[in-house]
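Final report, closing paragraph on structural work. Over the funding period we assembled a curated collection of sequence-structure pairs, and we close with a single example.
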Amino acid sequence: MTALTNPSTATAEPPTPETVPQIATPETAAAPTALHSPVIDWFTENARDLPWRRPEAGPWGVMVSEFMLQQTPVNRVLPVYEQWLSRWPRPADLAEEPPGEAVRAWGRLGYPRRALRLHGAAVAIAERHGGDVPTDHAQLLALPGIGEYTAAAVASFAYGQRHPVLDTNVRRVFARAVTGVQYPPNATTAAERRLARALLPDDEHTASRWAAASMELGALVCTAKNESCHRCPIAAQCAWRLAGKPEHDGPPRRGQTYAGTDRQVRGKLLAVLREAHAPVPQSTLDRVWHEPVQRARALDGLVADGLVEPLPGGLYRLPLT
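Its predicted structure, as stored:
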């Protein structure tokens, strides 16, 4: 099947029963090879020039980017990533620092437990692997703070290996193009994993390009809102578009709120501690939020998560151990 040459005309035509594929499983999906070349060719022409995609980034740069990009947009990650790699160009450099320094350098990226997990992974890499990010997928998965997605992403993007890489963008592309629904489930399912494996090219190099290309397609074209089907290289094969773009049939998808939440209070408390280079008294932290019960709950949560270390005399600091 060739790429769509006149998307505005084709989209306006109502689909017929013959042109609406009932795609729900890998067995009924379009041939994977029909998707690979258009998406990879599009990626070759349209991929963003991001620092973690450059050869000099190395496996450590790829790993750092994967931790930072979880639930955080690229434009917010870029300056922190550059500062991080300048300060800690190797895992061993980070491992030599207290974990609180990782939290401090994390800044306002959000979800700061990722900083502790990245520090823990760096320590493990220094202790178990001689300071080099391991190439073996199982060894990556065994590192603290590394789950299914991050292990596959590092193995694929840093080492060119063949692994299904399922982030939110990829899952949305597969849901629409192959399964014919607007959004994937809230959590990754076994069916999605089977589909990702079925769509994975056999050749390692092609598979790693496919992983990056399908992710970029979801980030730039097949977005959660206001998708740009006229720019999509596989619009002619997209089951969701051919079905008339049926609305999401499931629980409402609510955006995450921030203002007034414990997350906001935690962020304000951490901001004070990041700026301080000596222990901070309780009275200083009390000034960051007007509601004492919520403030205490947020501070207790930070302590429980290992992001804040309480000291005698009502003092607090970022963790040293």
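Strands lie at 280-281, 309-311, 315-317. The longest helix spans residues 204-220. We thank the funder for supporting this effort.
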